[in-house]
Design brief:
The protein is 33% helix and 27% strand. By secondary structure, it is an alpha+beta fold. The strands form six sheets. The chain has a four-stranded antiparallel sheet, sandwiched between helices.
Length: 334
């Protein structure tokens, strides 16, 4: 609280100035640190939804090239760089230690925060891309920088850091990878750019394993769970689709369970998970534990076979990579 006051992220106001009170609480972060969270879930229901697609593993896969070198940057308190329009601040009020405060900088928690932040950062990245041949992709406040030349990437990374700081973005040095590497962790995945393979980071693997075991236990006990939590685990598992090619197939039962529940209930209401989804949950648990790496290269097939059949006959065509075509056909045996 004192840190946010000192950095002008929040400001104290009279209670009658607040137009909407939001619960606030503390959650633990790695390395024994704490983060203050604004629970704006009730406010989000009153805000008009904006459809916006964030970058993800698909975009990383499309951007990288074999033998690339990578660096990564992390922006500190990135959302707080955006100033909230003054008439809107009273809707971002909260109470703490008998006093009332409101956010003057963009907080975590509102559904529009990631969208506005991404749009603001995109303007800076557009300028950088015009002046550099470094390929850049961001996921919220994490940036991935790529280039085929190791030394050029090292120099350009330092220049890009200075540009970001000139726009008053704060870089978390201890979380950055300034030295180019061919194996890097980004958005919960380990990307091997020399071998062109991908797998989950150990931290992502542990988190998903814990959540899946919890879901299995709740399903077996037929205990109630909020629909939004089921939607959350579906989203996290679908995020692995670059590594798990059949991800959407392995989520069909969970997706249909969620859809049926939402016909009569709202996101924050409880539901009982059908035991039929246990098969999918155990399948995913096995895949998460194994964490089998997946190639990122698109392999060209050596041969393509096309077959057809009818009551009278059959035929098959074999197309070779050389361009030759083999054809065979015959009549059906009665």
């Amino acid at each position: 609280l004192e840190e946010e006051l000192r950095e002008n992220i929040i400001e104290q106001i009279h209670p009658e100035q607040a137009k909407w009170f939001n619960p606030t609480f503390i959650i633990p972060k790695p390395h024994q640190k704490l983060r203050k969270i604004l629970d704006a879930s009730a406010l989000n229901k009153e805000i008009q939804t904006i459809h916006f697609k964030m970058n993800g593993t698909d975009q990383v896969r499309d951007l990288i090239r074999k033998e690339d070198w990578a660096t990564s940057l992390d922006l500190k308190s990135a959302f707080h760089h955006l100033i909230v329009y003054p008439p809107h601040r009273p809707y971002l009020a909260f109470e703490a230690m008998g006093k009332v405060y409101q956010y003057r900088a963009m907080p975590f928690g509102t559904q529009h925060s990631p969208i506005f932040f991404t749009q603001a950062l995109a303007m800076v990245l557009t300028k950088i891309r015009r002046e550099s041949d470094i390929r850049i992709l961001n996921y919220a406040d994490d940036l991935l920088l790529l280039h085929q030349n190791k030394e050029r990437l090292r120099k350009q990374t330092l220049i890009i850091m200075k540009i970001l700081e000139a726009f008053e973005w704060t870089i978390v040095q201890e979380k950055c990878e300034i030295e180019p590497k061919q194996q890097t962790n980004f958005i919960g995945q380990t990307w091997d750019l020399e071998r062109m393979y991908i797998k989950m980071t150990d931290q992502r693997k542990q988190e998903l394993r814990y959540q899946l075991r919890r879901f299995i236990s709740l399903t077996q006990r037929q205990a109630p769970i909020k629909i939004k939590y089921l939607a959350s685990i579906i989203g996290k598992l679908n995020f692995l689709r670059v590594q798990v090619k059949e991800a959407s197939l392995y989520l069909k039962l969970m997706e249909s369970t969620k859809t049926r529940a939402l016909k009569n209930k709202k996101w924050r209401e409880n539901m009982i998970l059908s035991k039929e989804i246990l098969l999918e949950l155990y399948q995913w648990l096995g895949m998460i534990v194994n964490n089998q790496e997946m190639t990122l290269e698109v392999k060209i097939p050596e041969t393509v076979m096309v077959s057809d059949a009818s009551p009278k006959g059959w035929g098959v065509t074999l197309e070779l990579q050389t361009g030759d075509t083999l054809l065979q056909h015959g009549e059906q045996n009665k």
